[in-house]
Design a protein that fits this description.
788 residues; alpha+beta; 6-stranded mixed sheet; 29 strands
Length: 788
């Protein structure tokens, strides 16, 4: 085969597989909506494309199978026959056979010697309006294995033998459609061809190479930024800022080329759910939300198998049989929901069913029966901890082993694969009401934002996806705020006990002088303590470090063989000064430090935390700050990117806008006093932004928001605290720029309208507001003059 011909075959294989994936979805959709003729037309065009191309390439067996299927779809499109579940089953079997033939062609370059006369016979009978027998002996071959030659390999001619009767149907049927006689049916795909010209196929290896090169460019950019900060040359600084901007845009562009919608792996689930439900005698409706949610291709491949297992498990192990559902007061048809969305720089995936749910008592009894727990340990465990036993190797509550579940070798593998890519998995359920499995994974593993911290002479990077907040204890508070509870150092954070882990101790480094020995029960004696609050496996803990540097985007490099077995490291990166920094595995660090452990001490600590915690369904974490009129205001912490302090001299006024140079960009700044009218003066007095006093050089506190790839700053009077409280029973707003008022931490607090801040920061917004105010004042003056 020539190189040109090999390229044609490669294109044919890729295009045909895409068509088959779409046909799978459409056939399942057609079974649910048999009156939708557009679905039939779409399936017909796809199979016609496969048949026409394989005829040109000389794949006779592939052409024979697709031709027989095309005949059925042609009669279905012309409403000569009606769709039935049996027809869907045979057509899906045809798709499996075609997919197996494509795999055979890709592997060997040939179709093999398989005999598909049984399948062609069944398709021919459907075309003529008959009902084929689908016994176990006559069932079409699945696509799990490539076709193999029979004992006596027949010649290619017998395979095409069933076609003459198909090509010459009864007089009542219209003549068969041939490639040369189908201009009307080809018009539809031809009209869609311009849309296809906007995309091209690119080899994945090339994208990986581009990603590696961009990663090296980001490392070089970080080094140049660090070096430029030590010089005062305005020309060099300007060129560095331009390089920083271009590199960031290039990085974003290349990462977008690797991003794929999660719908690419969800497309096969309707077929999986349909086939599995039929084999289990169940009725299941699959609902998918957020198919367009994008994540990196490497992560798409990594979560494909875990998601497939969860879906199969939900159908076989979660949703009940129709008669049991009806007896329980539920609809006979079960519902399986797949939902994906972006939140907090991560991709959230939820698999929810309305089946039998989770029985904590049954799980406990199984765990005791298998020796995984003692009776005393089980009595101390919460319901949530009981549910998480499902992820243990070898654990299963299935009453019998099936070909889908029951062996206890699935959920532990799912959890391992999710955690391997830096994700977390959680499970919630109620007996009789269903189960929800929540998965959180990063958007990409190549370039991630991270917080750089130091311990001893070494620097470490912490992925920002696991970071919740930073705490600095100074003076007397650094000595008294850390308490010892059952031998574990804890810090009381907003009424909750936060277990502490000392980074140096966890890594086996000697504690610096003055820091104390946390393992020996001595609280730290350092006048300044830095606590990095992290989340691991849905649990919070504080990591005590010697110093906190800054956040920056790091390029993740794999660890060498000698470090792969260390559970506290997830990779390495090269810093701006050329030195290597290890990336901490937050989950591994928590496990090594026994923050996540099933032990008696942990149970007692959890009990103490539970006593100190007031549960609430509507709890939210809010950032509190003081307003210009000595009141209190709050915004959701999830909307905040960073908290900064600037010398007031750094704020520059350009026209009617207040700006500051921030991280290589010009960031607009909004003063809270100009956004929210002061309650004790006339609102008009605050219409024009106030200019900072020229002799005031003290620091200003700025809340930084991230919006549409840019940063926006809000100058506040004073940042007070970060609290978690209920936002129930809000009072309507009493002035512009405020969403309402609630009680937070025992005091009435106004909720700032963040969208108003973002609108105010738009170019020209301050000028428009000032002009409108001036026009209103002039109009009022004229009216007063006329009245006089």
């Amino acid at each position: 085969m020539t190189d040109d011909m090999a390229d044609v075959v490669r294109e044919f294989l890729g295009e045909s597989r895409e068509n088959l994936d779409q046909i799978d979805l459409d056939l399942v959709a057609l079974e649910n909506s048999p009156e939708d003729g557009s679905i039939v037309a779409r399936i017909f065009r796809a199979i016609h494309t496969v048949k026409g191309t394989c005829g040109f390439l000389g794949f006779t067996r592939l052409e024979a199978v697709s031709h027989a299927g095309e005949n059925v779809l042609s009669a279905l499109r012309d409403e000569e026959i009606a769709p039935t579940p049996m027809m869907t089953t045979v057509l899906l079997a045809m798709v499996d056979v075609i997919r197996g033939l494509l795999t055979q062609i890709e592997t060997t370059g040939e179709e093999g010697q398989g005999d598909y006369s049984v399948l062609i016979e069944q398709l021919t009978m459907l075309y003529r309006g008959g009902t084929p027998a689908l016994g176990s002996d006559a069932a079409p071959a699945p696509a799990t294995a490539a076709p193999e030659p029979p004992a006596a390999a027949p010649e290619p001619t017998p395979v095409a033998a069933p076609l003459p009767p198909v090509a010459a149907p009864t007089p009542a049927a219209p003549p068969l459609l041939s490639p040369a006689a189908a201009p009307a049916h080809e018009a539809a795909p031809a009209a869609e061809s311009p849309a296809g010209e906007t995309s091209i196929r690119v080899d994945v290896a090339l994208l990986d190479k581009l990603m590696n090169l961009v990663g090296e460019l980001v490392l070089a950019r970080n080094q140049i930024l660090q070096l430029t900060g030590r010089t005062g040359d305005a020309t060099v600084i300007s060129a560095t800022q331009a390089l920083n901007l271009i590199t960031s845009e290039l990085q974003e562009g290349v990462m977008k080329t690797r991003m794929q919608p999660i719908g690419n792996i969800w497309n096969k689930f309707p077929r999986v759910v349909r086939d599995l439900a039929r084999s289990c005698d169940k009725r299941v409706e699959l609902v998918m939300e957020g198919e367009s949610t994008e994540l990196d291709k490497t992560l798409i491949e990594a979560i494909k198998d875990p998601l497939t297992h969860l879906v199969r498990n939900a159908v076989d192990h979660g949703i009940e049989l129709p008669d049991r559902r009806v007896a329980a007061g539920k609809p006979a048809q079960g519902r399986l929901l797949l939902r994906a969305f972006h939140e907090g720089g991560q991709v959230n995936i939820e698999v929810t069913d309305d089946g039998a749910g989770l029985d904590a008592e049954r799980i406990r009894d199984k765990a005791i029966e298998r020796g995984l727990l003692t009776v005393d340990q089980a009595a101390r465990m919460t319901e949530r901890e009981m549910f998480r036993l499902i992820f243990l190797p070898g654990f299963s509550t299935a009453p019998k082993i099936t070909n889908v579940s029951g062996r206890g070798v699935g959920m532990d593998v799912v959890r391992t694969n999710i955690e391997r890519i830096g994700g977390t998995i959680d499970l919630q359920g109620t007996k009789g009401a269903g189960t929800t499995i929540k998965i959180k994974i990063p958007l990409t593993l190549a370039i991630i934002p991270a917080l750089v911290v130091a311990s001893g002479d070494n620097r470490y990077a912490i992925p920002q996806a696991s970071l919740l907040e930073l705490i600095r204890l100074e003076g007397e508070e650094a000595v008294t705020a850390v308490e010892m509870l059952y031998g574990t150092p804890v810090y009381r954070l907003r009424g909750k006990l936060l277990p502490l882990v000392y980074l140096g101790d966890a890594l086996g480094q000697p504690a610096p002088a003055g820091l104390g020995d946390p393992a020996g029960g001595d609280p730290p004696r350092e006048p300044e303590v830095h606590i990095v609050v992290l989340r691991a496996d849905d649990r919070q803990f504080g990591l005590v470090v010697e110093s906190v540097h800054d956040t920056e985007e790091i390029v993740v490099k794999p660890l060498g063989k000698h470090l792969k077995g260390v559970p506290v490291f997830a990779g390495a990166t090269i810093m701006g000064d050329g030195k290597v920094a290890l990336i901490l595995d937050v989950l591994g660090l928590a496990k090594r430090s026994r923050v996540i452990a099933e032990s008696q001490e942990r149970a007692r600590l959890d009990h103490a935390v539970a006593v100190a915690t007031v549960d609430g369904d509507d709890q939210q974490t809010m950032l509190l700050f003081r307003s210009p009129d000595d009141g209190r205001m709050a915004i959701p912490l999830s909307r905040v990117a960073r908290l900064e302090e600037f010398p007031r001299t750094m704020l520059e006024r350009v026209g009617h806008e207040l700006l500051v140079q921030y991280r290589g960009e010009i960031m607009p700044v909004v003063e809270l006093a100009s956004l929210v009218p002061e309650r004790r003066t006339a609102p008009r007095a605050a219409a024009t932004p106030a200019t900072p006093a020229p002799d005031d050089t003290g620091p200003v506190q700025v809340v930084v928001f991230s919006h549409d790839g840019a940063h926006i700053g809000l100058v506040v009077e004073q940042i007070l605290d970060i609290v978690e409280d209920s936002l129930a029973n809000p009072r309507p707003p009493g002035r512009p720029g405020v969403l309402g008022a609630v009680v937070i931490a025992g005091r009435v607090t106004e909720l700032l309208d963040v969208e108003a801040v973002l609108r105010r920061a738009q170019p020209g917004a301050a000028w428009a507001e000032a002009s409108a105010a001036a026009a209103a004042d002039e109009l009022a003056t004229r009216e007063a003059g006329h009245g006089a």
